[in-house]
């Protein structure tokens, strides 16, 4: 159960429709009238109920990218994930043995799954995972120096999507939750917010008889608590240090009639979920550029599909792509995670601006999508900002992201054939394991 404030409309940009932020207003509402709506003097809200949420949760797989977090911290995250969801732990942990090595991470997940949850552990550097991608025709994700998958959160998510489609194919939604979250209760809320967002869209499809679209739910946290060492106090900061910057530029990009404030609140949302079809259709950016890229990828895909249909002389054919709808949901729990240094933050926003800079600059996508913004000017501003804030020198360009092909262009049958049937459990000698009910469905 969950109650939300109704979004005050949306903004359409060609194939992309971005909804204004909604907010969780009640975590455990009681049933009201049939329409699930209540209006008071000023506000409309809408509630989603247990059965609707469960119908989505049982079709949802949650990918948890992790590195060297303590096993107890990762365990807290898995604790918070509703047990109807399958869990894929994609680890890029630097060491195998010891209390917090990747074998211990895998064991922890295996323990959880003895209670009936479906789970999978895979190490990002598992050599067979790289070969499986080569078999699938995606050598780009392999680092030629090591022959294993490249490092990066985006790359870990990419592996997670391929695993989800290969081994959890009956699950039609995929969500991501960082492993360094210290509040298991907020993890539960994120999963419920994902499910609630999808359920609301489904409801409106059913009501209006419209075609289902690609749908994405992005989380905006109520706050990010930070310890201020000078005052000794915990401050409940509203916007993260990187989000603040990336959101500001996305807001300029998606401004309508000069109104640019507070529309995009989820540019960097590490916590987000989408329909599996959308995850397969989208190209992905490397590392931390992955999240901001998701905002422009549908526009770019639209443009390239128009170009390619033009080449085939079929420009007058109806536009074949699905529309993409992005929901932004603000949750009630704080987002408390590992504190990181300024260098990390600078790299993160520079990567976010870089992905916008390099992909918007030469593209007609913005024009086609009816964006009002002067893109050349916006790109110049981003670059200037990065120079002024010492992310790059004035002779340098913003970082250029690597873009990986959409997985619906990959041969995922070969990927799965190569990795084999999900054998239950694993002996700890291999960096791949399946637990619980996988393959028994
Ligand atoms: N598998 C894998 N491989 N996981 C990774 C890798 C990798 O190479 N790099 C990072 N991760 C995992 C971390 O272990 C963590 O659980 C999660 O991805 C997020 O990484 P952090 O290093 O904690 O990132 P952050 O907290 O600074 O940034 C997060 O929030 C941002 C928004 O504020 C990330 O989710 C960003 O993507 C997001 O933009
Ligand atoms: Mg973090």
From TrEMBL:
This is Mannosyl-3-phosphoglycerate synthase. GO terms for molecular function: mannosyl-3-phosphoglycerate synthase activity. Signal peptide: none annotated. It comes from Apiosordaria backusii. GO terms for cellular component: cytoplasm. GO terms for biological process: mannosylglycerate biosynthetic process. It holds the Pfam family Osmo_MPGsynth. It comes from the Eukaryota. InterPro entries: Nucleotide-diphossugar_trans (IPR029044), Osmo_MPG_synth (IPR012812).
